[in-house]
Amino acid sequence: MARVQRQPDARDVAPAVQRLRVHFAKRGRLRFTSHRDFQRVFERAVRRAGVPVAYSAGFSPHPKISYIGAAATGAASEAEYLEISLTERWAPDVVRKTLDDALPPGFDIIEAVEPAPGARPLADRIDASHWLVTLGGVSTAALAAAVDAFMAADTLPVERVLKDGRRTLDARAAVVSLIARGEPVGFPAEPVGEASGPESGGVAETDPVGRYAILDLVVRHLTPAVRPDDVLTGLRLVSDLPPQMSPLVTRLAQGLLDETGRLADPLAPDRAVAAGSPAAAGEPVA
Amino acid sequence: MTAVLGCAAAPDSVFPRLEPLLMQVSKPVQYVGGELNSVVKDWAACAVRWCLMYPDAYEVGQPNQGVQILYEVLNELDDVLAERTYAVWPDLEALMREHGIPQFTVDAHRPVGAFDVFGLSFSTELGYTNMLNALDLAGIPVESRDRDDTHPIVISGGHAAFNPEPIADFIDAAVLGDGEEIARTVTGIVRDWKAEGRPGGRDELLLRLAKTGGVYVPRFYDVGYLPDGRIATVTPNRAGVPTRVSKHTVMDLDEWPYPKKPLVPLAETVHERYSVEIFRGCTRGCRFCQAGMITRPVRERSIDTIGAMVDAGLKASGFSEVGLLSLSSADHSEIAEVAKQLGDRYEHTNTSLSLPSTRVDAFNVDLANEFSRNGRRSGLTFAPEGGSERMRKVINKMVTEEDLIRTVTTAYAQGWRRVKLYFMCGLPTETDDDVVQIASLARKVIEAGRQASGTRDIACTVSIGGFVPKAHTPFQWAAQLDHQTTDVRLAKLRDAIRADKQYGRAIGFRYHDGKPGIVEGLLSRGDRRVGRIIKQVWLDGGRFDGWSEHFSFDRWMNAAEIALANEPVNVDWYTTRERNRDEVLPWDHLDSGLDKDWLWQDWQDSLSEVEVEDCRWTPCFDCGVCDTMGTDIQIGPTGRQLLPLTVVNGKNG
Q1: Between residues 105 and 144 of chain A, which touch chain B (CB distance below 8 Å)?
Q2: A44–B454: do the CB atoms touch at under 8 Å?
Q3: Any idea where the domains of chain A sit in the sequence?
Q4: Which strands form B507-511's sheet, in the order they lie side by side?
Q5: What is the mean pLDDT of residues A13-24?
Q6: Is the CATH code 1.10.3210 the one for domain A125-186+202-264?
Q7: ipTM
Q8: How high is the pLDDT of residue A208?
């Protein structure tokens, strides 16, 4: 009557010896992937590439990869972050290149850095996002008027369906800056690659007649998060913008908001330490 | 909307028009393509262009082995391209119709109507309405007779193609059996016909296909009916068209090691693993099992090919799970070696191995143990299929209650916590008592399991599916149980399990109502008149009939009433009616190799509760397949090894 106990042997689990912070982009048609889709694709790329990722112990071991604040399905991003733990030390740039080669075009690894000893968690270096939203069927002038009305409002409650039912968020409270533009300034180029083929990516063609407009937006991360969609809803509340504007949303940056309203690169302190000038990091060691 | 057949200029991608709509639909990633190992070839450089469809949602269709194999087999030919399309959900369908966007492939987003051949793989008949919808969205007339030289040739395959009569009006051709070789044969015929300047148009191309004897072209056969509604005759109406069309059998699976480069989806799908068929065919002789009847004989893939495929497939995909597929995987002559050597190779790599295990014996538990070396022993599935000893004799599932108890006892004793038992309801000659006996069987399983494991923390799930008689099986003559009786019988079983104060709480019970089974039965054994019902259902909005939230029994019954108004037959006639020996069955002109007299004898043996052995280990019992098809049983052991063994340890080399 011996009860059979099966415990996984902890000695089987190779310990993590290195942690890397990875900055990556989600571009073109891959903006339609959900965060879960990206996770699966990334974990498979890690396996194919033979990057020695560490696994958690237990009955169903998981690769030790943590994701920080993923952009929503449908939004492209130039500024996504994750952390990965390895069982062997690899040069960060080798990891960057190996993973970038293994990932489909559109998921592009921009940088990998090793965090400085005692560095603050990545999540603590991010409290806002910079977004660019291209809107179809709207003139820059109409959008500018809506933006003025939006910024003039004290609060702009908008409704959204969340997991726990309908919630009302204040779209205005989270917005640090909001600008209507006619030119896609700083908009990332479409990646060239096999999967892009002859098809269009997520970038609208420049239209001199002005049937499109661009919204430049900095949003503070609050709970629950206010997304570019919510800001669009808010803009419609204070103007007569059309309901369907086929928005193309791209996150340009994430980081800590400084007094001037700019975002500090969350990897800059680690990069500075890695480059041998901890003083330049400008971050107190925790 | 449709391009000229085989036009040299590449049709425009629909993606620029599709993309702005994608944020309005659920799970847009399923429509964007871009999967690892997908192929986009130069349109103009290809002489023959195939569009392949699994007519269900992407999440179900993408992992389909048949489509993936053909996709690779065709794309390996220099002057041939193959792309894929799947059923679009109603939210996108509405937008596509509103914006005039045609059915498209996910590979290069080309319109389906521009291809030369549109091949659909049906593993279930419930995809028929999705086919009509895809044709319509593609701008291809849904009825074969309305198509002209600008439209693709529409070919169906898969297990349901063994009785394609219900969709005879909608397809141009059907292919029975293994697709690897015949897909290339069809390609060659299309290539030659196009190179010759398409002599005789579409009709000539179909005739050339039909004359091979391996492609069924329904329009070249006339069906005559008796006054009572039964079929009188099925006769060819063209010179050179064979009286019977044969199935295809790939004899050396080692020559066809596909998929080599599995398609890896961006979207979440139902099976995310590298699957390798370890053999095809099954001669266990379960009488309800169409797959086991139509895929004979058994042809094993050798252990070294399996080893090489798994190695290459995992490297090409990054999958962390391997599925060893077949109709009864534990029956591979070297399965123990396959299991042990794969287990050794992938130990400590977080790669899991799975074997759809259904056979009820202790050996299966040993295999399952081998496959769960690192992982948790959670659940094991066994399929006794019949609830009573008597039923198991009727269906030729040779498992005694003793076998079952011994097997589950072994499983529980070795640390497995949950055993799932799969049964069928509505089998020929079945009574309420045969089904209610499942409750006492489950009770004995829990009792034995608690003793063997020394814990009360074990469970048994009873899962029941409704039996649907299928073409080319000994039960093709049987009456299907009506859905009302099915539901009553299942309710009695549910009550019997719930009434068990001592063990009932440890027994889970899963079942479905009997209505979808009636529609499946109608489509499985239907004839050409059933096509009118399918079309009516589609016109009435029927789509995704395999999904309970989209399936409507009433829509099917109403459509049948309209479509069969002037016929002496109705849904009951197709489903709950037992057939006589002399009745011409709608699929008699389609040759699975099985001798009709042998099937009849097996049906009679079934009614007398006489069992038939497996011909792999006993003398041939003359089912007819090998003689008719020129095939033979191909099994090991080969005595070879999996691979020159290198233990993968998860570290980078």
Answers
A1: 106, 136
A2: no
A3: 10-114, 125-186+202-264
A4: B379-385, B418-425, B459-466, B507-511
A5: 94
A6: no
A7: 0.89
A8: 42
